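Quick one: structure for this chain?
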Amino acid sequence: MTQLRPAPLALRRGRAYARDCLGYMGIAAALLPIGVPVALGIHDTEIARVIALVSSSIPPILASLWAARAESAGSAATWGKRRERLQVVAAGPSTGPASFPRALLRNAVKIALPWELGHVVAIGAVYGDLDDGSSSAPVSAAMILVYPLVLGLLGTVVLGSGIGLHDRLAGTRVVTAS
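Got it. Here's what it folds into:
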């Protein structure tokens, strides 16, 4: 019987991501002084919903760009990965630094996609889409996608080889820094 074992770098990657999330929360917090007054001044609920959806996409996009820039730069690592002595490299025969497009795809799948799907569900809940059980198509789709995506991202990092879904899609790997 095959036994599932934790991936070798799983704990270090988890700690690195937790540290990085502190910075991502800082991005969201920095935008509150802009978002709250704008939201309070809008009285049409449909316009408010659209603005909430659009504005909620700004922090995950910025976080993905920030992480991609860090992972494609000289250290090949975000702040959290540097603390854990980890690097992101291109997968394959030549394991050099990941290019910016690869790092951006990696972080869009890892950060922006689950974050924004979660926001679609949360904003739908705020505007009553979940009250009577008949949620809108985008909210239903987001609810169906977000949990398997997060479980897939976590499961592929924690178990087996430790090559995450986002790493597989972007052609990258996380390795111990040399």
